[in-house]
Design goal:
Blueprint (H helix, E strand, L loop, with lengths): L2 H14 L4 E2 L5 E3 L2 E14 L2 E8 L7 E5 L3 E8 L8 E3 L20 E2 L2 E3 L5 E6 L6 H6 L4 E6 L16 E11 L5 E2 L7 E4 L2 E2 L1 E6 L2 E8 L6 E5 L5 E6 L2 E9 L2 E3 L4 E7 L8 E7 L33 E10 L26 E9 L10 H4 L2 E3 L11 E4 L3 E8 L5 E5 L5 E5 L14 E4 L4 E7 L5 E10 L2 H5 L3 E7 L15 E4 L6 E6 L6 E8 L4 E8 L3 E4 L6 E8 L4 E8 L1
Parallel strand pairs: 1-16, 2-5, 3-6, 5-11, 12-17, 16-24, 25-28, 27-34
Antiparallel strand pairs: 3-4, 6-8, 6-9, 7-10, 10-11, 12-13, 12-14, 14-15, 17-22, 18-21, 18-23, 19-20, 19-22, 23-24, 25-26, 28-32, 29-31, 29-33, 30-32, 33-34, 35-36, 36-39, 37-38, 37-40, 40-41
Length: 575
C-alpha cells in the first residue's frame, strides 16, 4: 500500500477524534532577565500517540517575551538537547555576537547569555533556531516563540494590548506527520494546520476591537489571510512596527518569517456568531509555495506538492466565537499613527545587488533546479568561514533583489530594517509601506529596498541574509555580511565587493594575492585545512604577495586574512 495513502488515512482517522480545540495561548515572560531552557519532550497531537517534540520551557513552542524598548536585557539560553542549537532574535537590532545566527552555537549542556539594550520600536518579533543545516527540523519540532516589544509611543494610542484578552498571539504553522505521527520535514506534505501548536483551534473573542499578532512560522508555506465573510479588517503594523495609518483590506499575504498586526472589529457581530480566519490560497499567484502550481507545465515542483490538499485551496485557519465584550473595551480604530519617513534615495552611497539563482551544477537535473533547488545567493552557497558582503557603518544602501528562479523566496536580512522602494519598478502596495525585515520576491521579480546600517560594527563576526524557506536556508541559500566601522582607521574601502584577488585557483605551487589599497599596511594570513587545523600562518603586506603552497597536500583549504578592522575568508584547491 502506498505510504502516502497510509499517512493520509491515519491522519484522517486521527482528525476524526477531534472537534474544535480551544486555542492555546503561550505563557509570558517579562522583566529584564529571561531564562529559556531548550528541551526535548513529547506532545499528544493525536490520541494515543506521543510525538517527539522540542520546546522552550515546555514541550512545544515557547513563552511570549514581553520587552520594553530601552531596557537592558539578559537572555539566558540553556541547551538541554543532545544536539547543538542556536537562538536568533528575528528582527532585533543587536550586535552580531548577540544575533544568534549560525556563528553563535550553543552546544549541549551549555548556556548562552547575550546581553543588550532593546533598541527596536514596539512591534511583533520572534525567536527560533538558526543553526547551519538544522533550522527546519528544530523549528518544525517546536522551537519557536513570539516576542512583543512595547514602547512609550505605541502606548499613547487607543489600541488593544491586554495579552490573551483582546491582544492575541497567533503562531501559524503547517506541519507534516509521518505514519508514526512524528513531525516530518523536507517535504511539501504539510497538510496539517495548527495555531500556537493547536490543531483545529477556536478562539473566543470579545464583541469589540481585537488585535491579532500574526506570525508565519511555517517551514515554507505562504498564507493569504482573510475572514470567511470577506469583511474588512485593519492592518496596523508590519515586521518593524506601526504603519503611518491603518490600512483597511480584506486580504493579507504573509510569507514565512513575516509578521503583521491586524485589528478586527468584532463589535459588528452578534454574540454567538462564528466565523473563520481563512487562507485564500486559491488566489495566490503561481510560483508561491501554497499556490496551486509552482513551475511550468513541464517543469514542476516535486516532493508531493500537488498531492497536498492545502495547495491552491481555501482553508480554515482559526475559528472565532464572538462572546460578550470585556470591561472598558476598545471600540474604535485609530485614524493614524506617527508618519514614516523612508531614507531618500539620494543619500545612498552603495547600490548592492543580490541574485537569487538555482544551483544547476549541484542539482540532479539542471533545469529542475529552478523549482526544486538547491538555490544560491549571487551564485554562492553558504560557507561558515566566508564573508560575502562588507558594508560600512552609517552607510545608506539600496539593495536590489532579483529572483532568477521559478519559485518565490522570502528574503530576510538580519540587523536592520528596510523600506521597500519598488517592485518591478512600481511603487509597493500599502501593506509594504512600513519597516520590513522580510520581503517575498516572486519568481522573475526585482525588488529594491533602502536601509541604513547603524549602531553596531564588528570586523570579524558577520550577520546573515537568506531565504526564509527553511529547507532553502538549510541547503545553503544564505550569505553573510560584515558591518565595518571605517572611522576607526580613517580608511574606507573603495572596492567593497573585492578586497583582494586570489589566483590561480586551483593552484599547484604558488597562489598570488593582490590587495586593494584600502587595507591596513599589514595583515595576518592563515591557511586552514578541512579539519580546522592551521597549516600555515604569516604576516603579509599591501602589495602582491606570492604564497608558496608547494608543501601542502592536495585538497581543499581555507585562506583567512584579517587585520585590526577587516576579516575575509576564501576557499581554494591545492592540486
Amino acid at each position: 500500500m502506498n505510504k502516502y495513502f497510509i499517512l493520509c488515512l491515519l491522519i484522517s482517522l486521527g482528525l476524526d477524534t477531534y472537534s474544535q480545540n480551544a486555542l492555546y495561548i503561550p505563557d509570558t515572560l517579562s522583566g529584564t532577565t529571561f531564562n529559556l531552557n531548550v528541551q526535548a519532550s513529547t506532545k499528544v497531537f493525536y490520541t494515543g500517540y506521543n510525538t517527539p517534540t522540542y520546546g522552550y520551557n515546555g514541550n512545544f513552542l515557547g513563552p511570549t517575551l514581553l520587552i520594553n524598548k530601552g531596557d537592558s536585557i539578559t537572555l539566558n539560553v540553556t541547551n538541554n538537547l543532545s544536539v547543538a542549537t542556536t537562538v536568533h532574535w528575528h528582527g532585533f537590532h543587536v550586535a552580531p555576537m548577540n544575533d544568534g545566527g549560525p556563528h553563535q552555537i550553543i552546544n549541549p549542556a551549555s548556556t548562552w547569555s547575550p546581553f543588550f539594550k532593546m533598541r527596536n520600536d514596539a512591534a511583533t518579533f520572534w525567536y527560533h533556531p538558526h543553526g547551519e543545516g538544522k533550522t527546519e527540523i528544530q523549528i518544525s519540532k517546536g522551537l519557536a516563540g513570539m516576542i512583543i516589544v512595547r514602547d512609550s509611543t505605541e502606548a499613547t494610542y487607543k489600541l488593544p494590548r491586554k495579552y490573551g484578552v483582546d491582544d492575541f498571539p497567533l503562531i501559524i504553522q503547517s506541519k507534516s506527520f509521518d505514519v508514526l505521527y512524528q513531525i516530518a520535514t523536507a517535504s511539501h506534505e504539510d497538510s496539517i494546520m495548527m495555531v500556537n501548536g493547536t490543531i483545529d483551534p477556536y478562539l473566543e473573542v470579545p464583541k469589540q476591537v481585537v488585535r491579532l499578532r500574526l506570525l508565519n512560522a511555517s517551514a515554507d508555506r505562504t498564507y493569504y489571510f482573510g475572514l470567511s465573510d470577506s469583511s474588512n479588517f485593519y492592518l496596523i503594523a508590519s515586521d518593524g512596527g506601526l504603519l503611518a495609518q491603518p490600512y483597511s483590506t480584506n486580504r493579507l499575504r504573509l510569507s514565512t518569517g513575516e509578521r503583521a498586526e491586524i485589528l478586527i472589529d468584532f463589535g459588528a457581530y452578534n454574540t454567538g456568531k462564528q466565523l473563520y480566519l481563512k487562507s485564500y490560497a486559491s488566489e495566490l499567484p503561481q510560483g508561491i509555495i501554497g499556490a496551486d502550481s509552482v513551475g511550468t507545465s513541464t517543469i514542476t515542483i516535486s516532493e508531493g506538492y500537488y498531492g497536498n490538499h492545502l495547495n491552491g485551496a481555501d482553508f480554515n485557519v482559526l475559528r472565532f466565537d464572538v462572546v460578550a465584550a470585556t470591561a472598558n473595551p476598545i471600540i474604535t480604530i485609530p485614524s493614524s499613527f506617527l508618519p514614516l519617513i523612508p531614507y531618500d534615495e539620494s543619500l545612498a552611497t552603495v547600490n548592492r545587488s543580490i541574485n537569487l539563482s538555482p544551483d544547476t551544477l549541484s542539482a540532479m537535473s539542471g533545469i529542475q533546479a529552478y523549482v526544486d533547488g538547491p538555490f544560491l545567493m549571487n551564485d554562492k552557497s553558504f560557507e561558515m568561514d566566508s564573508i560575502n558582503e562588507v558594508v560600512y557603518l552609517n552607510d545608506v544602501e539600496i539593495w536590489t533583489l532579483t529572483n532568477s528562479t521559478m519559485v518565490a523566496h522570502p528574503f530576510h536580512i538580519h540587523d536592520i530594517e528596510f523600506y521597500v522602494l519598488d517592485i518591478n519598478g512600481n511603487s509597493p502596495p500599502p501593506e509594504y509601506s512600513g519597516l520590513k525585515d522580510v520581503i517575498l520576491v516572486q519568481a522573475k521579480d526585482t525588488v529594491r529596498f533602502i536601509t541604513k546600517f547603524t549602531t553596531f560594527a564588528d570586523n570579524s563576526t558577520p550577520y546573515m541574509y537568506h531565504c526564509h524557506l527553511l529547507h532553502h536556508e538549510d541547503e545553503g541559500m544564505m550569505g553573510t555580511f560584515l558591518v565595518v566601522d571605517t572611522t576607526l582607521s580613517g580608511i574606507k574601502n573603495t572596492n567593497k565587493s573585492k578586497p583582494f584577488k586570489l589566483y590561480p585557483n586551483p593552484a599547484s605551487s604558488i597562489i598570488h594575492l593582490e590587495f586593494a589599497a584600502s587595507l591596513t599596511l599589514r595583515a595576518q594570513l592563515s591557511i586552514i585545512d578541512v579539519f580546522g587545523k592551521i597549516v600555515m600562518s604569516e604576516t603579509i603586506k599591501i602589495e602582491t604577495n606570492d604564497i608558496d603552497i608547494s608543501n601542502l597536500a592536495s585538497g581543499i583549504y581555507f585562506i583567512k586574512i584579517h587585520d585590526k578592522y577587516s576579516f575575509y575568508s576564501y576557499k581554494f584547491c591545492k592540486l
